[in-house]
Amino acid sequence: MDTFFLSHGPPTMCVDETVPARSFLQSWLPAGMAGTQAPRAILIVSGHWETDIPTVNVVHGTNDTIYDYHGFSFPEAMYQVKYPAPGAPDLARRTKELIEQAGFGPVKEEHGRGLDHGAWLPLMLMYPEADVPVCQLSVQTSRDGTYHYNLGKALAPLRAEGVLILGSGSATHNISKMDAGSRSAPVPQWASDFDTWLTDSLLHGRYDDVNRYDENAPYAKVAHPTPEHFYPLHIAVGAAGDDSKAELIHSSWTDANHSYSSYRFVTKN
After folding, report:
1. Neighbours of 73 (CB within 10 A)
2. Model pTM?
């Protein structure tokens, strides 16, 4: 199966139908997965779960919906959203096995943790029936892009086992510089330059440059003051492999500097 990186955007997208990326997430799947089987399970890596070591959620039954809005004031309707996808404890065990076999050390199991909005937000639009089992994997912000790329490579066997690997983060993520709610503000140069560099690097297969984005990308520290929303991309690329081909499957902007650039990674034959 192909792997994907999705820029999930703010949690308000679950109730705001004017966000361009919302309709993309609702409609891209049939075309994006044409000719492939439906996933038996989904492994999603969200920028909203940071841990010291790789950690998987082990859920028997259905996943809880975590409202990790961190003090922002949102409409009450956003606290009524539910995404009760089945847990995937077998996938959690398999993920743990692959990562440990690759030499990353012990993988922690967190029993009963549900899905944060970086996971349930895109999934509720892509799989509204919530009928595909989901396991979530954390990111390690104390490590770098190459570490997460190699972590993704360890997970590559899952693709042949019917597992859809999704990285959910943001192509750019600087909340302090956002113009919240804006649909018409011009995109600042730093955001545009970073986003253009990212797309060009991925489409031309310069994955090592992307792994070391903090050294190579223009305005890297402005586009990502902290790396947690970018590392899911590295895992998705790594899981597809060194010889994979990247495709830009969506591009739009909100809040002046928030890029929704999203990518598909197809392994070359």
Report:
1. 5
2. 0.95
